[in-house]
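G., the chain you wanted modeled:
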Amino acid sequence: MTAIRSGLARLQPRSPTSEDELHAMRRAAWRKQGVAVLRPEDIRDDWTRQAVVNEATRQYGRREETGDE
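Predicted structure as tokens:
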């Protein structure tokens, strides 16, 4: 039996993306478009992490507080 496709399908909640899927998307963005997606929490060197945060804040503004940190 063939499933019926509808525009309403977009209204259904999407399953959460796993960490592995997110990593694969970040890798593809870097390789295909030269876009680096870096989570500050994943940068181990303090100086490098602060430099990335400073530049992102300069270009895009301050991060929203999520309470997850």
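The first helix runs from residue 19 to 33.

Shout if anything looks off.
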